[in-house]
Amino acid sequence: MTDESPTVAVIDDDLSVRESIQGLLETAALRVELFASPREYLQAKRNDNPSCIILDVRLPGSSGLDFQRDMAAAGIRAPIIFITGYADVQMSVQAMKAGAVEFLTKPYRDQALLDAVLSAIEKDRQRRVEDRAVADIHRRFEALTPREREIMAFTISGRQAKQIASEVGIREVTVRVHRREIMRKMGANSLADLVKMSEALRNRGVTPGPNH
After folding, report:
1. How far is 191 from 65, CA to CA, in rounded Å?
2. Any idea which of 51-60, 116-125, 132-141, 169-178 has the lowest mean pLDDT?
3. Distance between CA atoms of 98 and 103, rounded to whole angstroms?
4. Percent of the chain with pLDDT over 90
């Protein structure tokens, strides 16, 4: 499967529900995988392509919300669409706060489920694009020397070359040479580009500096 072939996992202990959802989604040319429990899903081999999960919030043994937490702990980031036969405002708020895309109460409209699925897949596709972009930025950052990382940190904080030279204890012309090399290695066309890259790294837990 390629990134252009999204997959929808349906997790519900009721076979008739699973098959009904499968029939609906296949009318939209979506690839569907059925699971009777979260354990089945976790044990299955998953394709590395855009995906989402349709999950019954009330499952034997543990709730869908428990599984949502387990997924987060395991680093599985597929968006979740919850379905339930019982309207529960507190539960729906909890699910949405934890990152669920939608919380649908039965009986839901087929179109509402299809819309939620397509939105979730697009969200996952966009997340993957952003992940690849940040990974590329991180690779470039790793190619910087400790001195270049130090000067990059000063540069994005708004320090001028003269100030950086004084802070680091090197000549101003040397700072300018380092900055040119940083811009080249990072693929940045402007200071604004470099700041955006730095923010992308910070959002993933990497702080520009000599020791990250």
Report:
1. 43
2. 51-60
3. 12
4. 62
Does position 43 have pLDDT exceeding 80, yes or no?
yes
Domain ranges for the chain: 7-129, 143-203
Alpha helices in the chain (DSSP H): 15-26, 38-43, 64-74, 89-97, 110-142, 146-156, 161-168, 172-186, 191-203
Q: In what order do the strands lie in the sheet with 31-35?
A: 31-35, 7-11, 51-56, 80-84, 102-105
The SS3 assignment for 22 reads: helix
The structure's pTM equals 0.77
Domain 7-129 has CATH 3.40.50.2300: yes
148-165: average pLDDT: 95
**Domain 143-203 has what CATH class?**
mainly alpha
At residue 105, does pLDDT exceed 90?
Answer: no
What long-range pairs does 57-63 form, CB within 8 A, spacing at least 24?
57/82, 57/83, 57/84, 57/88, 57/91, 57/95, 57/103, 58/84, 58/85, 58/86, 59/11, 59/12, 59/13, 60/13, 61/37, 62/38
Statement: residue 143 has pLDDT above 70:
yes
Alpha-carbon distances, residue 107 vs 21, 47, 83, 88, 158 (angstroms): 12, 31, 9, 14, 56
Q: Give the alpha-carbon dihedral of 182, 188, 191, 197, to 10 degrees.
A: -90
